[in-house]
Amino acid sequence: MHPTKKRPFRFIHTGASKGSINMAMDEAVFIGLREGHSTPVLRIYRWLPATISIGYFQNAGDIDFTRCREDGIGVVRRMTGGRAVLHNEELTYSMLFTEEDFHPFRKKEIFFFIARCLVDSLRALGIESKVAEKTRGDLKSANCFASPAQFEIESLEQGKLIGSAQVLKEGIVLQHGAIPLTGSYREISKYLASDSDFTKSISSLNQASDSSVDRTSLLSALKTGFGKHLLLEDSHLNGFEKTLTEQLSRDKYGTDAWTLRK
Q1: Which residues make beta-bridge pairs with 167?
Q2: Catalytic residue, candidates 12, 118, 144, 188
Q3: Each residue of 61-83: pLDDT tens digit?
Q4: Are the C-beta atoms of 17 and 245 separated by less than 8 Å?
Q5: Active site residue 117
Q6: Please, where are the H alpha helices in the chain?
Q7: 25-60 pLDDT, tens per residue?
Q8: C-alpha separations of 36 from 41, 126, 220 in Å
Q9: Is 98 exposed, middle or buried (0-12, 13-18, 19+ CB in 10 A)?
Q10: Could you give the domains of the chain?
Q11: Up-side HSE of residue 203: CA atoms within 13 Å toward CB?
């Protein structure tokens, strides 16, 4: 279970964008890989304004949209599954590649490989973590961080540190995940239609670390950790991806038809 290393992964830091742009970038690369316009990507980004992303299959009724509008919180639907996440004081990673780039190309093996990369990234920050062996906690909660799923990353005290989601289809995989620097993600409780219990899963990098972790040090650590397992080259989105990002943000991810589809 390893990358084939037939071609390098682009390491791209796209900075802060609104939710519709971030999700459109992911799908633009997905389509580019499918159509032969793109090469594999490890992208790091953040969200501005703070945004709740909801899973592809999640009921939009889980979210209090009125409260979100009042507080300036964005809401966007992902193309991956899973439950709601409040993206604020964090970095998000996104990996996209094809069956040409990884063998065996199966969900379990891909989840575990990326988990190893994330554990090594946190170790570069002096944070020891582990891969969750099984899903635990409140499986009915609308909140992603209410429980760790199998192959997600948790602290040694079993607090969830990184929440990830994956879609694999048409020979392409997209996996992305939120890496909270602080506990600000817990404020999602204010924007859910039902209560969310954090008592079993309160954690963040700054809580798990003996020293302060900022975005710059986390970005460097992610490059180090993933670089142990992948051929990484500093790069950027290409013209096809940029044009398609604008279109998808406008016509899909920025629309109520997509956000409220369930």
Answers
A1: 174
A2: 144
A3: 999 999 999 999 999 999 999 88
A4: no
A5: no
A6: 19-35, 65-71, 107-123, 205-208, 215-227, 239-248, 256-259
A7: 999 999 999 999 999 999 999 999 999 999 999 999
A8: 13, 39, 30
A9: buried
A10: 2-259 (3.30.930.10)
A11: 26
